Amino acid sequence: MCLHELSLVDNTMEAIGSPKKYQRLRKWIIRIIIGYFVYMFCQFAVRVYLASIFSEKNINFVFICKVYLLYYGEFVLVSSALIWGIILGLVYL
């Protein structure tokens, strides 16, 4: 009986155009992930540039790969934390 009542409330809220809570959460999740990828790319570009200045080497594919491997752990840890936060946010909504 309770699930039927919740379904009616959801249908009523959807009919009047109010977004559901999980839909708003999904939009925020997408914004956070895109924002982090933009931030990560900018940080990576700055680190490649600074590494090329301090080491006085030309920027080539191997050099970029070495800098990426140097900072790979940081990027992966933050990405992992974001993904787990999203999963927990969806589970305990």
Biggest β-sheet: count, sense, barrel?
none
Strand content is: under 5%
Number of domains: 1
Structural class: mainly alpha
N to C succession of SSEs:
HHH
Q: Helix tally?
A: 3
Number of strands: 0
Envelope shape: elongated
Radius of gyration: 21 Å
Q: Assign a percent range to the helix content.
A: over 70%
Instruction: Enumerate the spans where pLDDT stays under 50 for 5 or more consecutive residues.
Output: none
Average pLDDT rating? 77
Distance between the termini: 21 Å
Task: Name some characteristics of this structure.
about 90 residues; single chain; mainly alpha; about 0% strand
Describe this structure in words.
Helix 2 runs antiparallel to helix 3. The chain has one domain (19-91). It has three helices and no strands. It has helices at residues 2-15, 21-55, 61-91. With 93 residues, the chain is mainly alpha-helical. The mean pLDDT is 77.
